[in-house]
Amino acid sequence: MHCIHHRWNTTGLRLVFNTLMVFVASLSLPVLAQSGAASSATTGAGSAAQDYPKGQVKFVVGFPPGGSSDIVTRLLAQKFQDRWGKPVVVEQKVGATGLIANDYVVKSAPDGLNMVLLTGGHPVSAAILKKLPYDPVRDFAMVSTVTNYPMVMGVMPESPIKSVADLVARARAEPGKINFSSAGVGSAHHLFGEWFNLAAGVSMTHIPFKGAAPAITELLGGRIDVMVETMTFMSGQVKSGRIRALAVSSREPSAELPGIPTINQTYPEIEFSSWLGLAVAPGTPTAIIDKLNFEVRQVLQMADVRQRLQQLGGEPAASTPEEMRVRVEREVARWVRVVDSRKIERQ
Predict the structure, then answer these.
(1) Which domains, ranges and CATH numbers included, belong to the chain?
(2) Looking at per-residue confidence, does 3 or 232 come out higher?
(3) Cα 228 to Cα 215: distance, rounded to the nearest angstrom
(4) Cystine design at 284: which of 110, 245, 310, 338 (Cβ 3.0–4.6 Å)?
(5) For residues 115 and 59, is the Cβ–Cβ distance under 8 A?
(6) Please, which pLDDT band fits residue 165 given cuts at 50, 70 and 90?
(7) Per-residue confidence (pLDDT) for residue 48, from 0 to 100
(8) Alpha-carbon separation of residue 164 from 33, 171, 266 (angstroms)
């Protein structure tokens, strides 16, 4: 009887133990499955980055040949091609101030093979246009900013306007009489001039042009009082003596135009540099974005690249993807405030 009771206890305990083990295992299966799926996803993303670029890489340019966007795109494309040992194609999709090229990349596959350099005009378009074919922040996988270059406010050499303070005094004395040029209604140049109007409490009249060439002709002819343009264009003009710079829009004085004061010395709230920044399609794996960010940083450390950017009036300006995203978001909000405050009609 004792043996039977002992055998029952042993058998019963074993049965209870096995039942418990099955129960515990059933609880662990989902966790193990999730762990395995996460491991597989991580491995897959890492593999995608290691294999990148697996297909044809294409840089899309939304502006005509010869401009800073086109020049810097081709510079990056050549350096990427050299580093990867694979061809990188540059394709022009010009029109609608870059919107056509941007939209092409937004709607491309999320594999990092189609790239575009967004410009400082990207957040401007979001503020001035009634409708965009994409969201200016959410619909782009930001990689890194590439270069910054400030705006320059300049006058003809013989102009009686000698400084920013002088410009403001004259604009206040005769509201609407002093005018400024821009590269077109809704351009970064235009909204920057209107931002200056807000900060200084003046009402300079905006005169739009299709580019810098016709604007400088009118400036030198005495029909435009102040020219607002990027350092890319103004650097050579100032150094040659054709234009006298009043101020630059960057936080710090420009090494390209030493001795020229910054606007924020007079109006601290005004600090602006236009920029170019690399972006790819939304949904591109983080591992690929991180690899592209690394590649941008490596290229921007090259002496010849830094020299070329400086010749264009800019400076290398790598960032994290998040820093670039925040910058676009912040600038969209700023330009919306300018458009609303100055009651500029949206296009």
Answers:
(1) 57-149+273-341 (3.40.190.150), 150-265 (3.40.190.10)
(2) 232
(3) 9
(4) 110
(5) yes
(6) very high
(7) 59
(8) 66, 10, 8
Torsional class of 211: left (φ above 0), alpha (ψ -120 to 50), beta (otherwise):
left
Collapsing DSSP states into helix, strand and coil, what is residue 343?
A: coil
CB 102 within 8 A of CB 42: no
End-to-end CA distance of the chain: 98
b (16+ CB within 10 A) / e for 25-37: eeeeeeeeeeeee
Query: What burial class does residue 45 get, using C-beta atoms within 10 Å of its C-beta: 0-12 exposed, 13-18 middle, 19+ buried?
Result: middle
The model carries a pTM of: 0.79
Please provide the DSSP assignment of 238-302 as one string: HHHTSSEEEEE-SSS--SSSTTPPBGGGT-TT---EEEEEEEE-TT--HHHHHHHHHHHHHHHTS
- pLDDT tens readout for residues 277-287: 999 999 999 99
**Percent of all residues in the chain with a pLDDT value above 90, rounded to a whole number:** 65
Please return the burial class of 233, using the count of CB atoms within 10 Å of its CB with bins 0-12, 13-18 and 19+: buried
Q: Where are the alpha helices (DSSP H) in 148-256?
A: 164-173, 188-200, 212-220, 231-240
Q: What is the amino acid identity at position 300?
A: L
Taking the mean position of all CA atoms in its chain, how far away is CA 34? 37
Question: Is the C-alpha dihedral spanning 78, 80, 82, 85 positive or negative?
Answer: negative
Sign of CA dihedral 149, 277, 69, 307: positive
pLDDT at 177: 94
Separation CA 149–CA 108 (nearest Å): 29
**pLDDT tens digits along 131-150:** 999 999 999 999 999 999 89
Return the DSSP state at 86.
S
CB 72 within 8 A of CB 13: no
| Whether the Cβ atoms of residue 124 and residue 185 lie closer than 8 Å to each other | no
Tokens representing residue 197 in the block:
């109007």
